[in-house]
Amino acid sequence: MAKYQLRQTMLDILIRIEKDKGFSNLLLNHELQQTDFNEKDKRLLTEVIYGTVQNQITIDYYLAQFMKNKKKLDIWVKQLLRMSVYQMVYLEKIPDHAIVHESVEIAKIRGHKGTASFVNGILRSMQRKGVPDLSLIANPIERISIETSHPLWLVERWAEMYGIEKTDAMCHENIKHFPMSIRIQPMKTTRASVMMQLENEGFEVEPSSFSSQGILIKKGNIFQTTLLQDGFVTVQDQSSMLTAESLQLEPGMKVLDTCSAPGGKATHIAELMTDQGDIHACDLHQKKVKLIEEKAAILDLHAISAFQGDARKLDEKYEEASFDRILIDAPCSGLGVINGKPEIKYEKQPSDIERLASIQQDIIETAASLLKPGGLLIYSTCTVDKMENNQVVQTFLENHPAFSIDLTFKNELSESLKQAPGWSAEGLQLFPQDFQTDGFFLTRIKRDT
Ligand SMILES: C[S@@+](CC[C@H](N)C(=O)[O-])C[C@H]1O[C@@H](n2cnc3c(N)ncnc32)[C@H](O)[C@@H]1O
């Protein structure tokens, strides 16, 4: 193995995340499959990559205190400094002198003596002087932004929409470690037997209160079992399980899933219909249609037919009032999944939210016409933003008196969800801090006539 291989790999991944705007989880999974690092090193690699990206604004604030000359750094130098600071400030297990030594050696290999001494100077002064106390930042918006590494515009936007306290809690939750959740395939196994198997293998698990198929994994790595590849379980955030759970599905129904890839919710729909019925799963991108098919195949589900299509034009493919149930799990800014995909918070701009809200509006306008009278439609997103959630739904209802919000789905949920703080006249906004799930919005709409 080449010298400093682990840190060099960390650095290469961080450079790619910044250059290619790649998703850290995808790049990391790919890398972990390629390398022959031992489990301990793989864990450290994961921790440093996520931690460095997750805390980037905080780290840059720390670094700025030690860089007199504000010259623009090469990407690799910037990322090397960031990952070194992450390890020095956030990880206790590695001594600072070892981190500084390795970083300086890597700087010598990748750059020249001058770069190495620049890196050495900054890291040694930080080691000597320590980092500034962020709680002393007087402006609360700025403090939250720097403490939790969320861009200022986003903190301002959330504070305006949800108040400063909720925003503070949400931003802090977004940088914590969340337990993962899985959904069992109930036609192949039971929740009790999967939980028992996992416990026997040393996992810590808990039943989910969101779905009778859900299991929370508090400790253990599900990817090291054969349960996923054998199609007994699939990974799904608990919040997402609420969509199919709230559709009042029955075997034999005709269902449309307008934005379906990679098929997490379509397969849940099929399971709740005991794989009997007609599930039309649409996605805009042909290559993603394959993902839906693969997920259905692995879970042994056959009632789903996946196809490429634009949800804004589905009225050209189907007659009005064709479906008993419709799910619109709309493309969105993803500001609810910052915890697992931290780069989202740096990449999204207010203009993206406006653009997406307009697409969401077009999708709901078209898809709703395909719902039968008496039928139910779920509109959901994995974002926390009123423009993409409450406003899209409100505008739709204003223009379509034949539809109304059916908040009775609240009564079908668990006691804890009934008490969720995010209920409004438009539906349920889950905040990450409420149940340690993705930030997620859903509502149920009924076609009355
Ligand atoms: C939030 S994801 C869906 C996740 C999926 N429902 C699941 O549970 O696995 C949104 C999906 O909408 C797709 N999409 C974006 N614009 C679309 C459009 N105009 N019509 C149909 N699908 C679209 C994206 O390709 C993406 O796969």
Automatic annotation (TrEMBL):
Its EC number is 2.1.1.176. It is an enzyme of class 2 (transferase). It is found in: Cytoplasm. Residues 170-448 form the SAM-dependent MTase RsmB/NOP-type domain. Keywords: Cytoplasm, Methyltransferase, RNA-binding, rRNA processing, S-adenosyl-L-methionine, Transferase. InterPro entries: MeTrfase_RsmB-F_NOP2_cat, MeTrfase_RsmB-F_NOP2_dom, NusB-like_sf, NusB_RsmB_TIM44, RCMT, rRNA_ssu_MeTfrase_B, RsmB-like_ferredoxin, RsmB/NOL1/NOP2-like_CS. Signal peptide: none annotated. GO terms for molecular function: methyltransferase activity. Its main location: cytoplasm. Specifically methylates the cytosine at position 967 (m5C967) of 16S rRNA. PANTHER family: NOP2 YEAST -RELATED NOL1/NOP2/FMU SUN DOMAIN-CONTAINING, RIBOSOMAL RNA SMALL SUBUNIT METHYLTRANSFERASE B-RELATED. Belongs to the class I-like SAM-binding methyltransferase superfamily. RsmB/NOP family. This is 16S rRNA (cytosine(967)-C(5))-methyltransferase. The gene is rsmB.
